[in-house]
Structures
1.
Amino acid sequence: MPDIPSTLKIHRDRCVDHLSHPVLATSLEAALQGALRLIDAFQTDVDITVKGTSNFVSSADLAAESAIVTTIREQFPKHAIISEESHSDRADAEHLWVIDPLDGTSNFLHGIPHFAVSIGYYERGAGKIGVVCNPITADWYVAVEKQGAWHNGQTMLVSRAGRLNQAMISCGFHYDRGKMMEATLATLADLFRADIHGIRRFGAAALDIANVACGQYEAFFEYLLSPWDYAAGAILLHEAGGRITDCSGGVLPLGTSSGVCATNGFLHQAMLEQLASHLQHLKSGDY
Ligand code: IPD
Ligand code: CA
Ligand code: CA
């Protein structure tokens, strides 16, 4: 077992100082155990299996997931788990953990230090705790329902920009190289025409949503994500004052995949309007 890098521990403890919940300590310990496995494996040779076009699972994903699930199971053996590589329990369970052990696998495999462990804890579909941790930069984003969201001990608040021409927008590309890619590219062109400040695509949806919650981006969108990509981020963003929905403004599901529109709230309607025609074309097969 590796030593806990001191910054990782200090930043985690700074978040804990502001929050309390019976399940918080386990959430943080599980994220820490996952993070330590990722630190261990980063920039080493890991075994890779191809899941689909540009979509990989590595021995690091599996080691992190096993460490996270073991930590949760030790404390709460009866809780349900949805986890990217191994568990798919019921989304409406009384106690549910939604886990992405390594969000940003492509970055990880390319040696780019922008990836995260993401853990959301829900009770009968209601978000209670969100934890996103980038192990390499030692950034912790932690929220508890009705207690706010914290980034390394600093309170997280969305930006107040209310116009697209004030916005830095982040996006993600689903793994397909077909219609979803075309829809995303066409949306980016429209957003640039609306005079946004810029587009960022850093490659880890959980961190993208956390960065909206911190006020760095005004909005993030992606036309198809899985619950483990957004379960923790949704709680962070809600507690930071933002809004997150599917790409038509509907409630995000926990039991199935969905598009995601995450914003500071002020820009939500404008973003949904930008996405609407592309969503329509996607549905009618026009791309
Ligand atoms: C991926 C990342 C990426 C997003 C993909 C996700 P993974 O998650 O969040 O930014 O564009 O759609 O699948 O595969 O690295 O856990
Ligand atoms: Ca992911
Ligand atoms: Ca993943």
2.
Amino acid sequence: MTDAAFEIAFKNVFGRAPEGAWSAPGRVNLIGEHTDYNDGHVMPFALPHATRAAVARRDDGLLRLHSADMDGGVVELRVADLAPGTTEGWARYPAAVLWTLRQAGHDIGGADLHFDSSVPVGGGLSSSAALQVVTALALTELHGVTGLSRQELALLCQSSENTYVGAPVGVMDQTASACCTEGHALHLDVRGLVQHQVPFDLAAEGLRLLVCDTRVKHAHADGAYGKLRAGCESAAGTLGLPALRDVAFDQLDAALESLPDERLRRLTRHVVTENHRVEEVLALLRAGRTRDIGPVLTAGHASLRDDFQVSCPELDLVVDTALAAGALGARMTGGGFGGSAIVLVEESDEAAVAAAVEAALPQVRQFATVPGPGAHRLW
Ligand code: ADP
Ligand code: MG
């Protein structure tokens, strides 16, 4: 839908013109899974797919929300009544952002917001973070809030999901949507929130990256996340460390020996080796050896499948099929239990690999992608 059609869609819903429109992307995580809440390293990049918001302020204290992607029409809330746990359905994501901004002392009142998105919803590509970040950017810019960095904006969005939506997520997805730049992967060291934009130009090297959405989301995904996070915190506590990030890669065996419980050993081994894989990928990209990241991605998948145990049969099938058909590397991306896998292939093998994946899992939705821009104002 063009910008003009998007503006008309807002008018059709709210009967007046929007004051502006913003866009925030979904993301793929190249490497560094379940490491963000362990104070570790991640390396996502923004998808060209994004969620848009057309917005106009209101002076009557109402927050009115509409999404082209959801049934049920306009959701109307009173800004003064917003409170954690009180909002149902998709509207809790933008409501949470507004509540959190106000809690942080930003004087933001009512608004009409109309959303649409090209990010597959529930596909492990962070449509939820795109929705949060586009809301936060639109409301802060429209209300003239200054002095809030993109990283701070992402932290507010994470906090809104932790507190208001009730999901104990890390900060990767929101940071990716807010801070990524076109043509780059974002290396984020979550401890200290140090960012590096890492050039990631697949086409120049004759490579393609396929995103394969399995279109499954297993039901236990939400509860499992909190248990995994608690397990990691318990392992770090047992080791007397602030976070699993503090286990050095060359000290892993010693750390494993001091953990009493097989599950905690598995979780620890994943987080420590995964942090190491992020550093390996970073070094390879900086050395111009993009092809060589393939085996590191595949090793990351094995670790998520066997040690962290967050893969599922559909993700394993995509990864195994792609590798058997000649892919350079493949892994699940995102939290797991469904969602998407990424596959690195030579340009010349793209069609054959995609065909093999589709034959193995006919419901799959696949596309080749490149790093797109982070969140920005459209007009
Ligand atoms: P993912 O972030 O992997 O796409 P999640 O389950 O974390 O999956 O987030 C999906 C939820 O985010 C949806 O169920 C809905 O509540 C909300 N959401 C995402 N995109 C939109 C959209 N375009 N319009 C309305 N709600 C959306
Ligand atoms: Mg999400």
3.
Amino acid sequence: MGAYAQELRATAKAMVARGKGIMAMDESNGTCNKRFAALGIPTTEEYRQVYRQLILTAPNLSNYISGPILYDETIRQSTTDGTPFVQFIQDAGMIPGIKVDTGAKDMAGHPGEKVTEGLDNLRDRIAEYYAMGARFAKWRAVITIDTAGDLPSWGCIEANAHGLARYAALCQEGGLVPIVEPEVLIDGDHTIERCLEVTDRTLAEVFVQLRNQRVEFDQMVLKPSMVIAGKTCLQQAGVDEVAAATIQCLQKNVPATVAGIAFLSGGQSIENSSAHLNAMNVKFRDRCPWPVTFSYARAIQQPALDYWRGDSRRIPEAQQRLLRRAEFNSAASLGQYSSKMEQALAGV
Ligand code: 5MM
């Protein structure tokens, strides 16, 4: 048994506690700046701090969120009154998390595919983040589906699964619960059947590699993408079909001892992100051995970011918009979300 086993088990359980999800706010500076630039928000460290503070200080965020995933810059920042973000998160009853991958880079010999990097010095970086107060980590691998049917290649799936497993083993050795995130991208015109096939192969290989690296399943959280038709596919699957295909794929590949499933939203609409999660919890709750919840970034943040636009006077209302998405997704994790909640909001 690893030195941190008991602590890791308790942390993993708390991350997916009933009615709670994980707040992904670990955008690298490049991604954050891209989202800011699209709205005319200055792409400076100062504005990134203000925005992350807006999220973390949204009143009673901890009612819905077990912990935020931070980025290296963010974990070193403080609120404007000088409270380190990590301490603010702990005082609010949440668990600080940290993204530790260094990004998905072009994969040599595999045009159009990416492999996630970040294993160099990872043991030391984990020790530093643990000492700073982080208790869980995240690493995202991306798998691309192409129109011709050539991608993903087997080499890409295998390399990314291997990276995820090496990362997860190092995290458990150093006291951080690994969030294992293999994202099958939604970009493209592929059908839901093709997404199911690729997600199935990807998850199967991820768990082969996790076993090989002796990762403890009850001390990790899986962050998968949903099984869904590509964004530009003309035949979009309905909510129940997405929920059924996703759960079918998870049941086939994910050991029952995994502490929890926390989905990414992956560029789905914010309403679909809630509706799909809700349908899984309404229709399949009894068949799932793990809690099924969310670890969304865009599907929680976007309405707040769109409203804020860098204007300090808009912070309180932006926080309310963020909290609404957190609340709705918390309801979806309990199977208690309904489209009526959206209509009430729109005043329909
Ligand atoms: C897939 O992205 C993760 C979940 O976000 P969505 O719910 O918006 O899909 C998210 O945690 C992502 O890993 C970070 O935003 C990563 O950003 P970088 O900058 O590393 O691509």
4.
Amino acid sequence: MVVISQNPTMKMEKIRDDIELPIINLCNRSEAMKEMVKACEEYGFFKVINHGVPQGIISQVEEEARGFFAKPGPEKMRAGPPYGCKNIGLQGDVGEVEYLILQTNSPFIIPTDESNKFRSAINAYVEAVRKLACDILDLLVEGVCGSEGGSALSRLMRDSENDSILRLNHYPAGEVSKIGFGEHTDPQIITLLRSNGVEGLQISVQDGLWVPVNPYPDSAFCVNVGDILRVMTNGRFVSVKHRVAVQAYESRMSIAYFVAPALHATVSCLPGLGLPLYRSFTWGEYKQAVYTGRLADTRLNLFALP
Ligand code: GA4
């Protein structure tokens, strides 16, 4: 069904609540491969279950993150640069969100975490989601290029200098008219997202038409295609704009693992996928464009070939 939103800051937008993202069972690998490729072409988003990330590891990091965000503001500010509140990026974008952004290729400290429990929970989580990301990337490459594709994508993140990041977000409950995180595509290869069962994520299936992503099943990871994977599949997979709306009834918490290559890695289309739509570039070059632009920009246009 298509409903017109009454929401003043989200303007008069259409919300479609009859589209469900596919829930893909990773136990059945050949089925999963086909379903994932189809979902990446159609929505740029899917959910995975039986993903192999132990529930204990997920619960631990979620509990620590809840504890961190429940601390008083000044104490969180002490966490310094990894902690941010409302300001998104460097060009004046804002949202009703507080967050921790952690670079996963170098050791980090969270000054409020005297016992190091949070850090250990994060490290265990990153190790587990990294494996899952490699697994998904290998299946996707095989689905698109056949077995000759090998580990073309997962190899990028096996590089110890890969630029993957972990972002923990907290969207306090509030006025539903407010945007927690404005519309954007993820710049990286793929994103693996967990949420605390509170809705808010919406994806843009076509201009001005938003689909709310239901946060169930609870055990699932929501996976989405980033701009780099779009380039590498020569536009066959779509990196789709998404955003997060504030919920009135409960705070939303999410943990996103953004899979990125090393800064020096060259990004270009995988072999056998036709005439390239984009020129080759390094991830460092793309990241630079990402941080000099605004959140909602369609940065890939800058790299499109005539
Ligand atoms: C969107 C995806 C990730 O959250 C993120 C964001 C980054 C940031 O918050 O620092 C950016 C945004 C994201 C894309 C455009 C730029 C950079 C904010 C912003 C305005 C961590 C990322 O990699 O790109």
